[in-house]
Amino acid sequence: MTPRVVPVLCAAAVTLLVASPAAAQTDDGGAEQYCLPTDPGLSELSGLTVLDGSLYGIGDSGADDRVARMDAECAVAQWLPNPVDPYDVEDLSSHDGSLWLADIGDNDRRRDAVALTRMDPAQGGAGELHRLTYPDGAHDAEALLIGGDGRPVVVTKDGLGTGGVYTTDTRVSDLASPGPTPLRRVADFAPAATTSPGGPPLLDGSRLVTGGAVSSDGTVAAVRTYTDLYLWPVSDGDVAQALSTAPSSVTALPPQPQGEALAFTEDGDLLLGSEQGVDTAAALPAVLFVRDAVSLAGSATSASDPEQMSTDAPAEPTGSILIPLIAAAASVGVVVLVTALLVRRLFRSR
Length: 350
Description:
13% of the residues lie in helices and 34% in strands. The protein is mostly beta strands and 350 residues long. 42% of the residues are buried. Mean pLDDT is 81; it is low at 1-21 and 300-350.
Protein backbone atom coordinates (compact mmCIF):
# COMPACT_ATOMS: atom_id res chain seq x y z
CA MET A 1 0.00 0.00 0.00
CA THR A 2 1.40 3.41 -0.95
CA PRO A 3 1.05 6.48 1.24
CA ARG A 4 -1.48 7.95 -1.23
CA VAL A 5 -3.99 5.14 -0.75
CA VAL A 6 -4.31 5.32 3.03
CA PRO A 7 -5.88 8.80 3.24
CA VAL A 8 -8.34 7.93 0.46
CA LEU A 9 -9.64 4.83 2.23
CA CYS A 10 -9.85 6.60 5.56
CA ALA A 11 -11.65 9.54 3.99
CA ALA A 12 -14.21 7.08 2.65
CA ALA A 13 -14.64 5.66 6.14
CA VAL A 14 -15.19 9.15 7.53
CA THR A 15 -17.83 9.84 4.87
CA LEU A 16 -19.74 6.69 5.74
CA LEU A 17 -19.70 7.53 9.43
CA VAL A 18 -20.93 11.08 8.95
CA ALA A 19 -23.61 10.12 6.42
CA SER A 20 -25.16 7.37 8.53
CA PRO A 21 -28.96 7.88 8.74
CA ALA A 22 -30.37 9.18 11.99
CA ALA A 23 -33.38 7.89 13.85
CA ALA A 24 -36.53 10.00 13.95
CA GLN A 25 -37.89 11.12 17.31
CA THR A 26 -40.34 8.28 17.91
CA ASP A 27 -40.87 4.73 16.73
CA ASP A 28 -44.43 4.78 15.43
CA GLY A 29 -45.93 8.24 15.74
CA GLY A 30 -48.64 6.87 18.05
CA ALA A 31 -50.77 5.85 15.06
CA GLU A 32 -53.89 3.70 15.33
CA GLN A 33 -56.12 2.06 12.73
CA TYR A 34 -58.88 4.37 11.50
CA CYS A 35 -60.53 2.12 8.94
CA LEU A 36 -59.78 -0.63 6.43
CA PRO A 37 -60.51 0.05 2.73
CA THR A 38 -61.69 -2.93 0.70
CA ASP A 39 -62.69 -1.40 -2.64
CA PRO A 40 -60.09 -2.34 -5.32
CA GLY A 41 -60.44 1.18 -6.68
CA LEU A 42 -58.48 2.38 -3.63
CA SER A 43 -55.47 0.12 -4.18
CA GLU A 44 -53.47 3.09 -5.54
CA LEU A 45 -54.56 5.48 -2.78
CA SER A 46 -52.36 8.55 -3.13
CA GLY A 47 -54.39 11.45 -1.74
CA LEU A 48 -56.86 12.02 1.10
CA THR A 49 -58.79 15.05 2.32
CA VAL A 50 -61.71 15.81 4.63
CA LEU A 51 -64.40 18.21 3.39
CA ASP A 52 -67.64 19.01 5.24
CA GLY A 53 -67.25 15.94 7.43
CA SER A 54 -66.71 13.50 4.54
CA LEU A 55 -63.49 11.67 3.69
CA TYR A 56 -62.39 11.74 0.05
CA GLY A 57 -59.61 9.75 -1.60
CA ILE A 58 -57.98 9.39 -5.00
CA GLY A 59 -55.46 7.06 -6.61
CA ASP A 60 -52.51 8.17 -8.69
CA SER A 61 -51.72 7.65 -12.38
CA GLY A 62 -54.01 4.98 -13.83
CA ALA A 63 -56.52 5.28 -11.00
CA ASP A 64 -56.97 9.05 -10.96
CA ASP A 65 -60.01 9.35 -13.21
CA ARG A 66 -62.38 9.43 -10.22
CA VAL A 67 -62.55 10.48 -6.57
CA ALA A 68 -64.05 8.31 -3.83
CA ARG A 69 -66.30 9.68 -1.11
CA MET A 70 -65.96 7.26 1.80
CA ASP A 71 -67.91 6.57 4.96
CA ALA A 72 -66.46 6.13 8.45
CA GLU A 73 -65.45 2.54 7.60
CA CYS A 74 -63.69 3.61 4.37
CA ALA A 75 -66.38 1.96 2.27
CA VAL A 76 -66.94 3.89 -0.97
CA ALA A 77 -70.28 5.69 -0.78
CA GLN A 78 -69.89 7.51 -4.10
CA TRP A 79 -67.47 7.76 -7.02
CA LEU A 80 -67.11 11.25 -8.51
CA PRO A 81 -65.68 11.38 -12.05
CA ASN A 82 -62.66 13.59 -12.63
CA PRO A 83 -63.97 16.50 -14.74
CA VAL A 84 -60.80 16.54 -16.89
CA ASP A 85 -58.58 13.90 -18.46
CA PRO A 86 -55.72 13.59 -15.91
CA TYR A 87 -52.01 13.09 -16.51
CA ASP A 88 -50.87 11.96 -13.05
CA VAL A 89 -52.84 13.06 -9.98
CA GLU A 90 -50.70 12.57 -6.87
CA ASP A 91 -52.47 14.39 -4.03
CA LEU A 92 -55.84 15.72 -2.96
CA SER A 93 -56.74 18.82 -0.97
CA SER A 94 -59.83 20.89 -0.19
CA HIS A 95 -60.63 24.57 0.23
CA ASP A 96 -63.79 26.68 0.39
CA GLY A 97 -66.15 23.79 -0.36
CA SER A 98 -64.21 22.42 -3.33
CA LEU A 99 -61.86 19.50 -3.83
CA TRP A 100 -58.52 20.23 -5.47
CA LEU A 101 -56.85 17.41 -7.39
CA ALA A 102 -53.07 17.83 -7.65
CA ASP A 103 -52.13 16.67 -11.15
CA ILE A 104 -48.44 17.28 -10.45
CA GLY A 105 -46.78 13.91 -11.02
CA ASP A 106 -43.97 13.88 -13.58
CA ASN A 107 -41.65 10.91 -13.10
CA ASP A 108 -39.83 11.61 -16.37
CA ARG A 109 -39.69 15.38 -15.73
CA ARG A 110 -40.93 16.32 -19.17
CA ARG A 111 -44.16 18.25 -18.58
CA ASP A 112 -44.32 21.87 -19.70
CA ALA A 113 -47.02 22.51 -17.10
CA VAL A 114 -48.68 20.76 -14.18
CA ALA A 115 -52.25 21.37 -13.05
CA LEU A 116 -54.75 21.68 -10.26
CA THR A 117 -58.27 20.49 -10.99
CA ARG A 118 -61.13 21.96 -9.00
CA MET A 119 -64.03 19.61 -8.30
CA ASP A 120 -67.37 20.47 -6.71
CA PRO A 121 -68.73 17.38 -4.92
CA ALA A 122 -72.10 19.06 -4.44
CA GLN A 123 -72.41 19.29 -8.23
CA GLY A 124 -71.54 15.67 -8.97
CA GLY A 125 -67.86 16.43 -9.49
CA ALA A 126 -68.17 19.32 -11.94
CA GLY A 127 -65.07 21.49 -12.17
CA GLU A 128 -62.28 22.86 -14.31
CA LEU A 129 -58.53 22.75 -14.99
CA HIS A 130 -55.96 25.29 -13.78
CA ARG A 131 -52.46 24.88 -15.24
CA LEU A 132 -49.32 25.91 -13.35
CA THR A 133 -45.75 26.39 -14.60
CA TYR A 134 -42.49 26.14 -12.68
CA PRO A 135 -39.91 28.93 -13.04
CA ASP A 136 -36.98 26.49 -13.32
CA GLY A 137 -38.03 23.56 -15.49
CA ALA A 138 -39.95 20.35 -14.93
CA HIS A 139 -40.24 18.71 -11.51
CA ASP A 140 -41.88 15.62 -10.08
CA ALA A 141 -44.15 16.26 -7.09
CA GLU A 142 -46.66 14.47 -4.88
CA ALA A 143 -47.59 17.03 -2.23
CA LEU A 144 -50.17 19.84 -2.37
CA LEU A 145 -51.07 22.05 0.60
CA ILE A 146 -53.62 24.89 0.58
CA GLY A 147 -53.33 27.24 3.52
CA GLY A 148 -55.72 29.63 5.17
CA ASP A 149 -54.55 32.37 2.79
CA GLY A 150 -55.90 30.26 -0.09
CA ARG A 151 -52.61 29.94 -1.95
CA PRO A 152 -51.57 26.51 -3.25
CA VAL A 153 -48.19 25.18 -2.13
CA VAL A 154 -46.47 22.38 -4.06
CA VAL A 155 -43.53 20.47 -2.56
CA THR A 156 -41.43 18.60 -5.11
CA LYS A 157 -39.32 15.47 -4.63
CA ASP A 158 -36.44 16.11 -7.00
CA GLY A 159 -33.05 14.45 -6.98
CA LEU A 160 -31.67 12.64 -3.97
CA GLY A 161 -34.13 14.06 -1.49
CA THR A 162 -33.70 17.77 -2.29
CA GLY A 163 -37.03 19.26 -3.29
CA GLY A 164 -38.49 22.71 -3.61
CA VAL A 165 -41.40 24.61 -2.10
CA TYR A 166 -43.42 26.49 -4.74
CA THR A 167 -46.46 28.73 -4.52
CA THR A 168 -48.43 31.29 -6.50
CA ASP A 169 -49.28 34.90 -5.81
CA THR A 170 -52.92 34.00 -6.41
CA ARG A 171 -55.51 32.20 -4.31
CA VAL A 172 -56.69 28.90 -5.78
CA SER A 173 -60.16 30.38 -6.21
CA ASP A 174 -58.67 33.08 -8.45
CA LEU A 175 -56.41 30.89 -10.61
CA ALA A 176 -56.87 31.33 -14.34
CA SER A 177 -58.57 28.49 -16.21
CA PRO A 178 -57.00 26.84 -18.06
CA GLY A 179 -54.05 29.14 -17.33
CA PRO A 180 -51.16 28.75 -16.91
CA THR A 181 -50.36 30.61 -13.71
CA PRO A 182 -46.66 30.89 -12.82
CA LEU A 183 -45.31 29.29 -9.66
CA ARG A 184 -42.40 30.79 -7.76
CA ARG A 185 -39.87 28.93 -5.66
CA VAL A 186 -39.80 30.11 -2.06
CA ALA A 187 -37.58 27.53 -0.34
CA ASP A 188 -35.70 24.26 -0.57
CA PHE A 189 -36.87 21.22 1.36
CA ALA A 190 -34.60 18.23 1.85
CA PRO A 191 -36.05 15.53 4.12
CA ALA A 192 -33.48 13.94 6.40
CA ALA A 193 -32.19 10.43 5.77
CA THR A 194 -33.55 8.37 8.67
CA THR A 195 -33.62 4.72 9.67
CA SER A 196 -37.43 4.67 9.87
CA PRO A 197 -38.79 1.54 8.16
CA GLY A 198 -41.43 1.52 5.44
CA GLY A 199 -41.98 2.36 1.80
CA PRO A 200 -41.21 0.48 -1.41
CA PRO A 201 -38.20 -1.86 -1.41
CA LEU A 202 -34.84 -0.62 -2.71
CA LEU A 203 -35.78 3.03 -2.15
CA ASP A 204 -34.65 5.44 0.54
CA GLY A 205 -38.22 6.31 1.41
CA SER A 206 -37.19 8.80 4.07
CA ARG A 207 -35.89 11.21 1.40
CA LEU A 208 -38.97 11.29 -0.86
CA VAL A 209 -41.90 13.65 -0.21
CA THR A 210 -45.19 11.86 -0.89
CA GLY A 211 -47.98 14.01 0.52
CA GLY A 212 -49.04 17.16 2.34
CA ALA A 213 -51.96 18.56 4.31
CA VAL A 214 -53.09 21.58 6.35
CA SER A 215 -55.23 21.42 9.48
CA SER A 216 -58.83 22.60 9.16
CA ASP A 217 -58.11 25.73 11.21
CA GLY A 218 -55.05 26.49 9.07
CA THR A 219 -52.59 26.55 11.99
CA VAL A 220 -50.55 23.42 11.22
CA ALA A 221 -48.94 22.17 8.01
CA ALA A 222 -47.83 18.57 7.51
CA VAL A 223 -45.59 16.93 4.92
CA ARG A 224 -44.88 13.23 4.84
CA THR A 225 -42.33 10.97 3.23
CA TYR A 226 -42.76 7.21 2.92
CA THR A 227 -41.45 6.89 6.46
CA ASP A 228 -41.59 10.16 8.42
CA LEU A 229 -43.89 13.04 9.29
CA TYR A 230 -42.84 16.72 9.33
CA LEU A 231 -44.98 19.34 11.08
CA TRP A 232 -44.88 23.16 11.12
CA PRO A 233 -46.95 25.75 13.00
CA VAL A 234 -48.47 28.23 10.54
CA SER A 235 -49.04 31.95 11.12
CA ASP A 236 -51.68 33.95 9.24
CA GLY A 237 -52.46 31.01 6.95
CA ASP A 238 -49.10 31.38 5.17
CA VAL A 239 -48.02 27.78 4.54
CA ALA A 240 -45.27 28.78 2.11
CA GLN A 241 -43.61 30.89 4.78
CA ALA A 242 -43.95 28.12 7.37
CA LEU A 243 -42.28 25.59 5.07
CA SER A 244 -39.43 28.05 4.57
CA THR A 245 -38.39 27.38 8.18
CA ALA A 246 -37.20 24.22 9.92
CA PRO A 247 -40.01 21.87 11.00
CA SER A 248 -40.98 21.92 14.65
CA SER A 249 -41.50 18.15 14.74
CA VAL A 250 -40.12 15.15 12.85
CA THR A 251 -41.75 11.85 13.75
CA ALA A 252 -41.24 8.33 12.45
CA LEU A 253 -44.41 6.85 10.98
CA PRO A 254 -45.49 3.21 11.29
CA PRO A 255 -44.32 1.13 8.32
CA GLN A 256 -46.67 1.27 5.32
CA PRO A 257 -46.18 -0.46 1.95
CA GLN A 258 -46.24 2.82 0.03
CA GLY A 259 -47.52 5.58 2.29
CA GLU A 260 -48.47 8.66 0.28
CA ALA A 261 -51.81 10.04 1.52
CA LEU A 262 -52.18 12.54 4.35
CA ALA A 263 -55.18 14.48 5.70
CA PHE A 264 -56.30 16.26 8.86
CA THR A 265 -59.71 15.57 10.33
CA GLU A 266 -61.80 18.46 11.61
CA ASP A 267 -60.81 17.43 15.17
CA GLY A 268 -57.09 17.82 14.47
CA ASP A 269 -56.29 14.12 14.06
CA LEU A 270 -54.08 13.15 11.13
CA LEU A 271 -55.01 10.38 8.67
CA LEU A 272 -52.33 8.34 6.90
CA GLY A 273 -53.11 6.32 3.77
CA SER A 274 -51.04 3.97 1.64
CA GLU A 275 -51.05 2.35 -1.76
CA GLN A 276 -51.17 -1.43 -1.84
CA GLY A 277 -47.53 -1.61 -2.88
CA VAL A 278 -45.75 -4.36 -4.77
CA ASP A 279 -47.74 -7.22 -3.21
CA THR A 280 -50.92 -6.93 -5.24
CA ALA A 281 -52.32 -10.09 -3.64
CA ALA A 282 -52.26 -8.56 -0.17
CA ALA A 283 -55.21 -6.89 1.51
CA LEU A 284 -55.42 -3.14 1.12
CA PRO A 285 -53.48 -1.26 3.82
CA ALA A 286 -55.45 0.28 6.66
CA VAL A 287 -55.90 4.02 6.89
CA LEU A 288 -54.17 5.03 10.13
CA PHE A 289 -54.60 8.09 12.30
CA VAL A 290 -52.55 10.06 14.81
CA ARG A 291 -54.67 11.59 17.56
CA ASP A 292 -54.46 15.35 18.08
CA ALA A 293 -51.56 15.69 15.66
CA VAL A 294 -51.93 19.47 15.63
CA SER A 295 -50.58 19.59 19.19
CA LEU A 296 -47.31 18.00 18.04
CA ALA A 297 -46.46 21.06 15.97
CA GLY A 298 -46.43 23.52 18.87
CA SER A 299 -47.39 27.15 18.31
CA ALA A 300 -46.27 29.54 15.61
CA THR A 301 -43.48 32.00 16.45
CA SER A 302 -43.80 35.63 15.42
CA ALA A 303 -41.34 36.97 12.87
CA SER A 304 -39.87 39.34 15.48
CA ASP A 305 -39.13 36.59 17.99
CA PRO A 306 -35.34 36.05 18.16
CA GLU A 307 -35.86 32.35 18.89
CA GLN A 308 -37.52 31.70 15.54
CA MET A 309 -35.84 28.84 13.67
CA SER A 310 -33.48 29.98 10.93
CA THR A 311 -33.50 28.59 7.39
CA ASP A 312 -29.76 29.21 7.09
CA ALA A 313 -28.71 26.44 9.45
CA PRO A 314 -30.06 22.98 10.29
CA ALA A 315 -31.99 22.53 13.49
CA GLU A 316 -29.96 21.47 16.52
CA PRO A 317 -30.07 17.68 16.98
CA THR A 318 -32.31 16.50 19.79
CA GLY A 319 -33.35 13.28 21.48
CA SER A 320 -32.28 10.05 19.87
CA ILE A 321 -30.46 11.83 17.04
CA LEU A 322 -27.85 13.39 19.33
CA ILE A 323 -26.29 10.18 20.63
CA PRO A 324 -25.50 8.70 17.18
CA LEU A 325 -23.97 12.01 16.12
CA ILE A 326 -21.71 12.10 19.18
CA ALA A 327 -20.67 8.51 18.54
CA ALA A 328 -20.01 9.28 14.89
CA ALA A 329 -17.89 12.30 15.81
CA ALA A 330 -15.83 10.21 18.23
CA SER A 331 -15.35 7.52 15.57
CA VAL A 332 -14.22 10.13 13.06
CA GLY A 333 -11.63 11.38 15.54
CA VAL A 334 -10.25 7.87 16.00
CA VAL A 335 -10.09 7.31 12.23
CA VAL A 336 -8.25 10.59 11.66
CA LEU A 337 -5.73 9.79 14.42
CA VAL A 338 -5.06 6.30 13.08
CA THR A 339 -4.70 7.69 9.56
CA ALA A 340 -2.09 10.22 10.69
CA LEU A 341 -0.07 7.55 12.49
CA LEU A 342 -0.17 5.18 9.51
CA VAL A 343 0.85 7.87 7.06
CA ARG A 344 3.72 8.96 9.31
CA ARG A 345 4.92 5.37 9.69
CA LEU A 346 4.73 4.67 5.96
CA PHE A 347 6.72 7.77 5.08
CA ARG A 348 9.37 6.90 7.68
CA SER A 349 9.77 3.41 6.18
CA ARG A 350 10.58 4.71 2.71
